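WARN retry 2 of 3 for item q-0093 after timeout on previous attempt; input resubmitted unchanged.
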Amino acid sequence: MRIKLLILWLLMSLFLFSQPKLKPSRQDLINLLGKMPKKPVLKVDTLEKIYLDGGIRYKIKFLAELGDKFLETPNDSIEAYLFVPQHIMGQKMPAIIAIHQDGSHNFYGKLETAGIMGDKEQYYGYGLFKRGYVVICPDRFLHAKRRWISKPDTLADLWEEETRMFCEHRGGQLFLKGRNGAGKETYDLTLSMDILYTLNIVDKNNIGAIGFSAGGYFLTYYMFYDTRVKCGVSACGVFELSDFFKQKEKMKRFAFNAIPDFLNVARTSDFLGYISPRPFLMTRGLWEWGMGNEVDEYYSKKHVKGTETLASEAGKYYKIKGAEKNLKTIYFDEEGGNHSIPPKVKEEIFNWLDSNLKK
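OK item q-0093 returned
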């Protein structure tokens, strides 16, 4: 009898050890985003109201989180532009959270997505308002008036000097409290969603999000976390964080962008995969690192290959839920295929959002 039990135990052990490693759980991924602060009571102050052709643009301000007495940090407030299209009483409209990019022009923030200042290519928040969406364009962490520099209103490139230092310093403040940059950006974006949820005009079943570059990168973690987002677009944005800090990468990165313990637990493709079955669209220029010389072309091709791998790994999650068609990637070479949103690609993005949010 003992021999039979021993044989049975050995067979069960072999079976268990031969099984593939379990994927990280959703809770494992939530834990990676760090501790989330307790949300303050939502109170929105209207700073400005402008009538536009087709609707109204509000400039609003709301508290993200209280300052820390020990670290002597001030309250962290967020300014945003809120677009409300013309509508009839009782009408429900789809909504969008428009997340701006990074870059040396970090003083633009919401001004760019709102179509007020900056690169016209980046006016996608304003563009979606013109297509009939309620749109909120918030300032991201470390941008515009959230830079915590001596003159936060200045429209000047300070990234290479003051802002670089404050980026690392504020990142350290987060790390000390068990938090990180991705978790902070995720938390902030949930507040923009909370605001949309207070608006009677908004169709809560049809709220999407779009971001370009770093805005599209952090959108992925946010959309994973906040299931109220029904579909998302990461334009030249999301990438595999596991590859971001490899020694031979073309650019060396801020520690602020790292997620503690990430390599031991998950990959970005897991976060993207857990978004399934919700629709998700990625775009990638074929030559985002440039072309015309071997080095730039090598890194451009490597970037595309990384996106293909990311989509393939995340696609396994979508396949399990029978939603393979809901994960889409647009590869483009229009206007040089660089780090951008060419007109044809933007129109395809907007049409895709319409197909998923305008029922």
